[in-house]
């Protein structure tokens, strides 16, 4: 029995409700979904990452590759969490019509990367962006997780109280260390990393810290463009595609997609800036935005199947 979708995608769930939904799915569909890993935020909230697979009982995904999606890296981007949960819903509760997306890939999904910041945004300051770890200077709190990864980390603002403060050192935040550990667990078979953000109507690939493009940028652009084309064709919503640096006023170090691509060697690492009216669009728009975003995500994953950067004939062993 599937869930009442209006209760999940008709409003913004709390962190507790997100975890309840995930654990409920694991209980109901134990042959399709499992808790892949659990970590804790600075304030002690449990952070669940789930795995969806047609071979869920196999601890080692022989000959299969991984798609990794995260959301909620920035606390105020509430809609990203809803979209991540919608992906989970489609793959688990509507897996019969989405079976082609599970043919070659296991999906690893982290729907709420920064739960402390998210709850603070929900309850106190809707525009809060960072984590909630006190910094011990000038009463400042929090680090921008998307400036905290260990790749060109020195580029960016050092000001403690800035909304985009990079941290005292790379991986100073337990929330970003959790993502790093997931990357490492997925070695060497993670082929696509997608980080959900809002609300710039763009699909971006590395690099954010430099105008120098990756060697495979054309293939990454093709994947991004496939998502954009699918969305505009189905919904009329136009997404821009390009490198992250081409959309920024200044170079940015420590981003998750640059770390994924340059350090973890994941060939496709994209940001999807979800098209929405602000970071927390009206509740009545959530389901529609989730559906539009899902159309693009499907198209990007299907495009991977024809990319020369991925061969499904090789047999490798990952976790």
What does this 3D model show about the protein?
- With 319 residues, the protein is α/β, with parallel strands linked by helices.
- The chain has a single domain (5-129, 173-304), classed as Aminopeptidase (3-Layer(aba) Sandwich).
- Helix 6 links the parallel strand 6 (202-205) and strand 7 (240-243).
- It has an eight-stranded mixed beta sheet, with helices on both faces.
- The chain is built from eight helices and eight strands.
- Residues 313-319 have low confidence and may be disordered.
Q: Would you kindly provide a brief summary of this structure?
A:
The protein is α/β, with parallel strands linked by helices and 319 residues long. The chain contains 8 helices and 8 strands, in the order H-H-E-E-E-H-E-H-H-E-E-H-E-H-E-H. Strands 1-2-4-3-5-8-6-7 form an 8-stranded mixed β-sheet, sandwiched between helices.
What is the element layout, followed by pairings?
Elements: H1 5-9, H2 15-28, E1 33-40, E2 46-52, E3 65-70, H3 78-93, E4 105-110, H4 115-123, H5 174-186, E5 190-199, E6 202-205, H6 217-235, E7 240-243, H7 256-263, E8 268-275, H8 286-304
Parallel strand pairs: 3-4, 3-5, 5-8, 6-7
Antiparallel strand pairs: 1-2, 2-4, 6-8
Helix pairs in contact: 3-8, 6-8
Biggest sheet, spatial arrangement of strands? 1-2-4-3-5-8-6-7
Integer-rounded radius of gyration: 18 Å
Q: Based on DSSP secondary structure assignment, what is the total number of beta strands?
A: 8
Count of DSSP helices?
8
Terminal CA distance? 30 Å
CATH class identity: Alpha Beta
The largest pleated sheet is described as: 8 strands, mixed
Helix content: 25-40%
Give the helices and strands as they follow along the chain: HHEEEHEHHEEHEHEH
**CATH H-level homologous superfamily name:** Zn peptidases
Shape: globular
Q: In percent terms, what proportion of residues is strand?
A: 15-25%
């Amino acid at each position: 029995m599937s869930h009442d979708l209006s209760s999940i995608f008709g409003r913004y769930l709390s962190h507790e409700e997100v975890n309840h939904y995930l654990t409920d799915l694991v209980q109901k569909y134990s042959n399709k979904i499992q808790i892949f890993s659990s970590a804790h935020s600075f304030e002690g909230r449990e952070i669940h990452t789930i795995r969806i697979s047609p071979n869920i009982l196999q601890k080692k995904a022989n000959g299969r590759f991984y798609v990794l999606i995260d959301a909620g890296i920035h606390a105020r981007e509430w809609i990203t969490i809803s979209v991540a949960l919608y992906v989970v819903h489609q793959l688990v509760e509507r897996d019969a019509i989405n079976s082609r997306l599970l043919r070659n890939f296991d999906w690893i999904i982290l729907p709420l990367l920064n739960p402390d910041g998210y709850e603070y945004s929900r309850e106190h300051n809707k525009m809060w962006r960072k984590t909630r770890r006190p910094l011990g200077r000038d009463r400042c709190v929090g680090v921008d997780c998307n400036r905290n990864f260990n790749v060109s980390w020195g580029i960016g603002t050092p000001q403690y109280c800035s909304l985009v403060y990079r941290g005292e050192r790379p991986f100073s935040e337990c929330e970003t260390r959790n993502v790093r550990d997931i990357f490492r667990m997925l070695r060497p078979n993670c082929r696509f990393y997608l980080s959900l953000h809002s609300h710039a109507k763009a699909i971006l690939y590395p690099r954010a810290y430099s105008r120098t493009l990756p060697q495979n940028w054309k293939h990454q652009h093709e994947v991004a463009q496939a998502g954009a084309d699918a969305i505009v064709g189905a919904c009329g919503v136009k997404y821009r595609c390009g490198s992250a640096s081409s959309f920024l006023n200044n170079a940015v170090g420590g981003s998750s997609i640059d770390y994924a691509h340059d350090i973890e060697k994941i060939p496709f690492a994209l940001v999807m800036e979800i098209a929405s009216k602000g970071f927390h669009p009206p509740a009545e728009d959530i389901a529609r935005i989730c559906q539009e975003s899902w159309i693009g995500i499907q198209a990007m994953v299907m495009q991977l199947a024809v990319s020369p950067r991925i061969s499904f004939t090789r047999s490798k062993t990952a976790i």
